[in-house]
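User: I'm new to structure prediction. If I give you an amino acid sequence, what do you actually give back? Let's try with this one:
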Amino acid sequence: MNYFKENRWITWLVAVLVILNISTLAMLWMQNSRQHRGKDRMERRGDKKNRMAKALNLTDSQVQQFESLKEAHREVVNELRKNIGEKKALKMEALTTNPGDITSLSELDQAIGNLHVEMQQSLNQHYNDLRAICNDEQKELLKERFKKIFEREQHSKRRR
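Assistant: Good question. You get back a string of structure tokens that encode the predicted 3D arrangement of the chain. For your 160 residues, that looks like this:
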């Protein structure tokens, strides 16, 4: 007991080291669990195409067509999103440099809106393309899947 009274700083040093060790272990554990969650997400993304194929009972050739259609649609949408981002950057620049120029802001808003319309038209075409490779039973299942997607989009838009 006298030893601890005489060497108080050692007691504090040991306590600090114990706390540091515990916090280091906790951080390592949290980082490891995040990595596992990331792997789980990647696995789920990989399963997404399989889930859709299973849900629609697609044949192997339909799966290949489905994937190529999806990739083509994704490229179109990514390009449109990129253009929307560029237009929004131009709008932000116009707002900060010349906020009184309502005409150019309106034109940029119109261009952004047109790009959103193109994105929706692309989705419509994508749905029709997917529908074209499905049989009647699969078309009904596809319709239900798209309904859920649209409901989820509406729900997420309301939260914003």
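You can read the tokens as a compact description of the fold. Here is one thing that stands out. The mean pLDDT is 83.
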